[in-house]
Write a structure and sequence with these properties.
Blueprint lengths: L2 H10 L2 H7 L1 E4 L14 H6 L3 H6 L2 E3 L4 H14 L7 E4 L12 H6 L3 H17 L4 E2 L23 H16 L11 E7 L18 H8 L1 H8 L4 E4 L3 E2 L2 E2 L4 H11 L5 E3 L8 H4 L5 H11 L4 E2 L3 H11 L5 H17 L12 H7 L3 H14 L1 E5 L11 E5 L24 H8 L4 E5 L9 H12 L3 E7 L18 H11 L5 E6 L15 E4 L7 H9 L66 E3 L3 E2 L3 E2 L5 E9 L5 E11 L10 E10 L4 E8 L6 E2 L5 E2 L3 E8 L5 E8 L1
Parallel strand pairs: 1-2, 1-10, 2-3, 3-4, 4-5, 5-6, 6-9, 12-13, 12-14, 14-15, 15-16, 19-27
Antiparallel strand pairs: 7-8, 11-16, 17-20, 18-20, 20-23, 21-22, 21-26, 24-25, 26-27
Length: about 725
Amino acid sequence: MNNEQLLDLVKQMTLEEKTAQLLQLTANFYEGTNVEGQITGPMEEMGITEQSVDASGSILGLSGAQAIIDVQQAYMKKSRLGIPLLFMADVVHGFKTIFPIPLAIGCSWDTELAEKSAEIAARESAVSGLHVTFAPMVDLVRDPRWGRVMETTGEDPYLNSLFAAAFVRGYQGDSLKDEPDRLAACVKHFAAYGAAEGGRDYNTVDMSERNLREYYLPAYKAALDAGVEMVMTSFNTVDGIPASGNEKLMRGILRDEWGFDGVLISDWASIREMIAHGAAEDDREAAYRAIRAGVDMEMMTPCYVHHLPELIESGEVEEKLIDEAVLRILQLKEKLGLFDNPLRAADPEREREIVFSKEHRQVSYELATKSAVLLKNDDSVLPLQPDANVALIGPFAQSPDILGWWSCEGVKEDAVKLGTALKERLTGGKVQFAQGSNVHTITAEQIAEALEVASKADLIVLALGEDSEMSGEGGSRTDIRLPAAQLELVKQLKAAGKPIASVIFNGRPLDLHGVIDESDAVLEAWFPGSEGGAAIADVLTGVVNPSARLTMSFPQSVGQIPVYYNHFNTGRPLNPEKTEERYVSKYIDSPNEPLLPFGYGLSYTSFSYGDLEVSSNEMTAEESLSIQVRVTNTGERAGVETVQLYVRDVTGEVVRPMRELKGYVKLALAPGESGTATFTLNEEQLRYHHSDLSYRSDRGEFHILVGANSRDTQKKSFRLV
């Protein structure tokens, strides 16, 4: 259908049909889902009629080709105007083939592989009948207490923007209609959900508009520039107004300023939640505020279907607002080719061939190897030697709980376990197992068994971490250390006097005290996905040389949070050489710096940097700078070094961060080989939002900082003239 035909379709719809198109419900409302289609249960609780269900526009959370075919066919038989359903789901980091969590994918600094993971997730989802994924989440996060930090790619707006665009390209391809194995992507959560106070899910967000634009909005804008079809509102308030009713944010910035004309959907029940926020008296006012803000689709509350007709009849809401929303939804259905083929790519036979295929699992494996960050490796304890006699101890030694919170159709039992994979690889050595502790509890018998197994080994590999319930939505924590039972296990095994290599499976940056000092080596595995055990075993044994770099700082303790690399200097900065000074910006019981900085990660080889070279000590608006540094692999293994470029604007109209990431180059070098990392820096990259929100650069001095992470850099200066 062309746009005129879609407009004509809108004209043929009754007001009730139009408002029903704006309603999104879960699968158990629909005929054909093995749930009795009577006015009981969810329909009765929400006051939803069969007529509204029969005319509703989209369905949430159903998957499986045959199930979706059945529901769509039953729905189309009842559809007066032949308008098909949209099927959506949270395909966050894989459908059945689960990739590492997005925070881990960020640590790969590999946008091409991230795009490939989204393409595979789309392929598996589409053949299983889905049309839209609620991904990517591009919220910038500086607080690891927040459970949903596992869905982000980190604390940096530039890097988050690169990944946002990569995920959108992977999900959507070039044409949704011509590529039925793709999904429409929905960027979330607009806006600034990652800045929830205290790291507590759904909590208040309060910041200046300048701060919002400078750090939190860029990744959403990058997703829009990449062509994302949908945007999801966030649960939080922004400037005191819940996002789902925030007219300035949704119509002012998203629609008018950025020109977004795709579908805007509320997060689950967030329109009705305006009542709890104190921004709406009842469902009627919530519907009024949301439709005026430009929210097209209401997820899992009935405010629109119950109250939009009367709001239009009373003249409080213009019907054209509903027509615009319906048109956008119909346009998306047309882009997906659903009017021509309501079943789209759903195909039970192809589903059996494609989903969880060997090819897809191989990409999951590769991404998991590139996402594991080596945090410590004293005395080259890792990699394990082929003839190593290893005691593998800990609650994650043979745990399948390595997929993470948002694992869609992933099955834990399908995940490759670390112990199984490690035993297969150390064929010339020996691997002995002990549980050691559970995730949250430990017994004297478990300790005794662990010590017995450790006494017979040359080296201990400790498999520790959070279970998947300890992060994800609703998974905020005030204490981000490992559970006390696991810290006790570490303490007991440290006394055994054997080298310890700890592997951590988790969904957030942790306070690693109680582990990092007691271990000779630490590998951050995150939740690595379906092939996680195989990938981590290959990193431990040196089949793969770790190359990942942190995209979030690891704090010394919760008391430092938020701690992030691109912070301000303050008027009384701490001089590291004068730590005894009192009246400076510092803690009296902790360093200011994080335990591990943004961009940090080790390798099984070593790299040396030559002198930093900059083409000029002046930059103009017309002429960019060329920046080069020679890097040499000085070790005995091939490896990848991620050379990072940071810039500091020394003096600005608004205070500028101590450093900001502006680019990076990955150099793959053989032993003894050298390579040159070359960067181009131009005036546009020096722009920022001033106090009047204008976006421009300031003349004056700038520092160029290049190195292996945000802390360890070389510096040169130039002036923008």
